[in-house]
Design a protein that fits this description.
Blueprint (H helix, E strand, L loop, with lengths): L1 E2 L1 H4 L16 H6 L1 E3 L3 E8 L6 E6 L5 E5 L17 E7 L9 E9 L4 E5 L2 E6 L2 E8 L2 E2 L3 E4 L13 E5 L5 E4 L1 E8 L2 E10 L5 E2 L5 E3 L6 E3 L21 E4 L35 E5 L12 E6 L4 E10 L2 E6 L7 E3 L6 E5 L6 E5 L13 H9 L10 E7 L13 H7 L5 H13 L6 H9 L4 H13 L5 H8 L4 H10 L9 H13 L6 H12 L3 H14 L4 H8 L6 H7 L10 H17 L4 H7 L1 H15 L17 H4 L2 H10 L1 E2 L2 E3 L2 E3 L7 E2 L10 H13 L10 H10 L7 E2 H5 L2
Parallel strand pairs: 29-33
Antiparallel strand pairs: 1-3, 2-25, 3-28, 4-5, 5-6, 6-7, 8-9, 9-10, 10-11, 10-12, 13-14, 14-15, 15-16, 17-18, 18-19, 19-20, 21-22, 22-23, 23-24, 23-25, 26-27, 27-28, 29-32, 30-31
Helix pairs in contact: 4-5, 5-7, 6-7, 7-9, 8-9, 8-10, 10-12, 11-12, 11-13, 13-15, 14-15, 16-17, 17-20, 19-21, 20-21
Length: about 750
């Protein structure tokens, strides 16, 4: 089923936007407009699939889909706790390109949100737990608990998701600081960098990309497993970077149905959304259908504005920067308000796959404003709840069908060099999952043949996953002239360095520093962490070389500091023997971390506060900490600090008003101005949720006014009730000017 989109879309001026009726898949596709030269094809729709939020493919070309059927059944979220979620397997048995068979693999799930096929089973994220189910003839075996705290608080919009099986053989998530790996029957869980909000992707070198709901593309300059060693270091340079800072969007239709549409500059004069408000589903396109021009494409979905944006990224050294691919238009837009793209995927056939939740309500009840409730009622967007579509975008005139991949180990080795990134990833994973030791000689040969660097890189990580990588092989790759290969050789070292072989790696790294290999410098600084656990003196010697060579490189400085957990003050005292200028990055970054440590040490007893304000502590965990951090010091790209904030410890009426009805930035905290895109420009209020009692709000505010280094007096139930009554007709967030006029 194909729509020729450029010719079927009616001019917006002739469309009645006062209602948003449910359209059939074909009708909805006719309301889409995609970039010239492309077309949208239907892959699956209701009744075969409903409320899809995530998917993955198996080697047979089948699609495993998560159905989040319980999400926001109405504007107050009635029945969200009902176990109605499912994982289903969709298959195209007659090979016409559209799924025609549905098989329920798992049901009775509560708001499931992520899945990952691995070995002979599947990971399933069902908050707050992460489960592993063996698969027996498409039926689940006895589940195994992988992580009882996969989610730690947060609501549906602010909980971990993704389960991306990355090039380094670890599984990463968005909105999370954990990574997972299966070793035999044991699951490893390690700390990693906190990343993103909804959706996560990797590029051809295994670096991660993600975003928050108000930001286009964020990502990492370095391999994901490095640098998350120092718990005192709140951020590490080179991670959580703004890859594309331009957050403008260009919807095809008016979009009054966004949560803060009543606020100035959220919508333009024609009621079109101006900037991202629900960015999600970041995808680095790695398929083989779109052509060379799309080799640097990063796509982002915006369900509130019914569109998909294309960005273009470029690389200079290890610095990655990007821009929007066009001005004033999008890769794909729709006039259908119910078109809700929530996730994007690469696929076996090289196409771009779109998960369309196809529904009216997309905003969670925690933050749903009275304004948006009225918009939902105007256009009767609450029902139906049983729709859902999966589409794919392909170039016109290109054949995109790819059949099941043969389960032949030698063939998988060849596929490690395939032009389609999904195929390369699958081949690597299948060789590791199958424990195919017989292909090790062929993989080792691929390490020596570097004419196809991507094949070399995947062979490297496949050998790592098979525990078959040898020291001399990595040493040889460390001396390659091609930076991507050297980068991967450095990135794989944490898996290999031990007491027996570290003396073989150390001289090579020292030589890189001496020869001013600036690309390798941050990686070498990160790797000191692993040498230090083996030989402190050797690590100290390497630290001195790195610091002397790169004293004013912020990336090297933060990489060095990542290795000195709880020894930051000692390290600072040792610096003058290496570098005299205290204005250089190595000093400023070290002092920054020491200040953060001092602030953390001054915090009040959190356990006592939880006992005193139990409801407030629970609310803080589920609603506030995702943007403001468990330590109250704010989260990069999301929210400013609450710790020692004059807005928290000062005037109670202002604080109650902000929490009930929100605040639109910019806002100054302790002399520093916080504004978008450094943080989310708007804090939503919770007063629109009538289920929250005055006692719960009072406890929440008392909890944050007493937490960390705050020590303000409590907020009473009566004070909340008084302000709530006073503002009961308010429908928009406060500005700083309004609050200061109180």
């Amino acid at each position: 089923m194909v729509a020729t989109l450029e010719t079927k879309v009616a001019p917006p001026s002739k469309i009645d936007f006062s209602s948003s009726p449910v359209l059939s898949p074909q009708q909805s596709m006719e309301q889409m407009q995609v970039e010239d030269g492309f077309e949208v094809k239907l892959v699956a729709s209701e009744p075969l699939v409903s409320s899809p939020v995530a998917l993955t493919f198996d080697g047979k070309g089948r699609i495993w889909v998560i159905e989040m059927n319980g999400y926001m059944p109405d504007t107050i979220g009635t029945g969200e706790e009902v176990p109605s979620g499912k994982i289903v397997i969709l298959e195209d048995t007659n090979k016409d390109g559209v799924a025609d068979e549905r098989k329920v693999f798992l049901d009775s799930l509560v708001l499931p949100r992520a899945l990952c096929l691995i070995e002979d089973g599947i990971l399933v994220a069902e908050p707050p737990r992460l489960w592993y189910y063996p698969i027996n003839n498409d039926k689940p075996g006895k589940r195994v608990l992988v992580d009882e705290a996969y989610t730690d608080g947060g609501n549906v919009e602010h909980q971990p998701n993704g389960l991306l099986r990355a090039m380094d053989n670890w599984i990463y998530n968005s909105k999370s600081s954990k990574r997972y790996r299966k070793r035999g029957d044991t699951w490893q869980i390690e700390r990693t960098h906190f990343r993103g909000q909804w959706g996560i992707s990797q590029d051809n070198y295994g670096r991660l990309y993600y975003n928050t709901n108000s930001e286009n593309v964020l990502g990492d300059y370095f391999s994901p497993g490095l640098g998350a060693y120092n718990k005192n270091q709140r951020s590490v340079a080179g991670f959580n970077k703004k890859i594309v800072a331009d957050n403008k969007v260009y919807p095809a239709r008016p979009t009054p149905g966004v949560n803060r549409g009543y606020m100035k500059d959220v919508l333009d004069d024609s009621l079109h959304l101006v900037n991202f408000t629900a960015a999600c589903g970041t995808l680095v396109y790695r398929g083989d259908l779109f052509g060379p021009a799309y080799g640097s494409a990063v796509f982002v979905a915006e369900p509130s504005a019914n569109l998909i944006k294309r960005n273009s990224i470029s690389e200079q050294g290890y610095i990655i920067q990007g821009r929007q691919a066009y001005k004033g238009k999008e890769f794909l837009t729709s006039l259908d308000e119910r078109f809700r793209p929530v996730n994007l995927y690469n696929a076996p056939d090289g196409a771009l796959y779109i998960v369309d939740m196809y529904r009216g309500i997309i905003q969670h009840k925690t933050y749903l404003t009275t304004y948006l409730k009225q918009e939902i009622a105007k256009r009767q967007l609450t029902e139906p709840l049983n729709c859902g579509r999966i589409y794919k975008v392909v170039p016109k005139g290109k054949k995109e069908q790819r059949g099941p991949l043969p389960d032949q180990p030698t063939w998988f080795v060849t596929l490690l060099g395939h032009p389609n990134g999904w195929v390369r990833d699958y081949a690597q994973q299948r060789l590791i999952d199958g424990k195919y030791k017989e292909v090790i000689p062929a993989l080792k040969q691929s390490l020596k043949e570097t004419t196809n660097p991507l094949q070399t890189i995947h062979a490297l990580w496949t050998l790592e996953g098979l525990d078959a990588l040898q020291t001399e092989e990595v040493v040889a790759l460390l001396q390659q002239t091609m930076w991507p290969i050297r980068m991967q050789a450095l990135s794989v070292l944490p898996s290999l360095i031990n007491k027996t072989n570290y003396t073989q790696y150390l001289p090579v790294m020292e030589r890189m520093v001496e020869q001013k290999d600036t690309l390798a410098a941050p990686y070498i600084a990160f790797l000191i962490h692993y040498i230090e656990s083996i030989e402190r003196n050797a690590a100290n010697k390497l630290v001195k070389k790195v610091v002397k060579q790169y004293p004013d490189d912020i990336y090297v400085a933060d990489a060095v500091i990542s290795n000195v957990e709880d020894r930051e003050s000692v390290f600072l005292k040792e610096l003058p023997a290496l570098v005299s200028d205290t204005n250089l990055a190595i000093y400023t970054q070290t002092n920054r971390v020491i200040t953060q440590i001092q602030n953390a040490q001054a915090r009040r007893n959190p356990e006592a506060l939880k006992k005193e304000f139990p409801k407030g502590a629970v609310m803080f965990t589920s609603i506030c900490q995702t943007c403001h951090g468990p330590d109250g010091n704010g989260v990069q790209s999301l929210g400013p600090p609450l710790n020692q904030s004059e807005w928290v410890t000062g005037n109670k009426e202002k604080l109650i008003s902000i929490v009930l009805y929100g605040l639109t930035g910019p806002v100054e905290v302790r002399g520093r101005l916080y504004k978008a895109p450094e943080i989310n420009g708007d804090m939503p209020g919770i007063g629109y949720n009538k289920e929250l009692t005055n006692e719960e709000v009072a406890q929440l505010l008392s909890f944050i006014r007493k937490s960390w280094q705050n020590n303000a007096d409590k907020v009473t139930v009566e004070e909340v009730a008084k302000i709530r009554q006073k503002l009961n007709t308010r429908q928009n967030a406060f500005t700083v000017e309004e609050l200061n006029a109180m």
